[in-house]
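Inputs:
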Amino acid sequence: MSNIGTAGAPDRAPQEDFRTPLKRARGLGSGKTGTGHWWWQRVTAVLLVLLVPWLVGLLVSLVGVDFEAARHIVARPWNAIPLAAFVIAAFWHAKLGMQVVIEDYVHTRWVEVALQLLVTFLCVIAALASLYALGRIAMTVASFNA
Amino acid sequence: MATRERAQTRPLSPHLQVYRWQITMTMSILHRVSGVALTVGALGLAWWLLALAAGGDQYAHAAALIASPVGLVLLFGFSLSLVYHLLNGLRHLMWDMGWGYDIPEIYRSGWAVAVLTVVFTVAIWFAAFGSHA
């Protein structure tokens, strides 16, 4: 995760604390999440390696298809369920990646925190909205089928 | 404190201004750029799904926007970013398993990703629109 709560305030006056930054950081553990960020970035990456080629095939098959037919194709369980898995994995992976980009390039503290919150909220809301849309498509298409 | 001021003004690594161009640095920065682009693209996919859920008029509106010149340019950028990030991501996963770490192998896999990105992106657009053109 981000470096919120880094050991020892960096702007502390030197006469208050003569320890080196390393000495202040030692013994505090891993910043609480350890390898979690790295690991989940890889887990979602492997999932996306499997799902992206399938998604590209699905989207290509939808070119030039009208509204009703597109709904029927997306509503099929073997399309709707992998699509749901894709949006979860994709927005999770996006959040983890954007977090690192922001940590690396945005050095004004309040801007960085604001951007991290914005990215997190956007990814969560977009994932939930996608799942809502998929659910609505999957559950309303049956009536067109009849 | 003098040392602190110096610490803030001295140039930081990786000293990009003194490096000659290498494919590795280009692939690395493009991985980030394509990742940011794909985040925006994923928001576009969510918007498209919502339009498909909302109804025929909304879907027709979304489809018309995608088929507009600006929409097609964005869609092309999305497909290019997707193929590149997927292929270069496989390169990263390969490195995570300890494979392909020698410099000649890293250069070779980098060029392979660059060439395959173009090939696959063209193939996708041909599959999507080749028969309609």
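The mean pLDDT of chain B is 91. Flag for discussion at group meeting.
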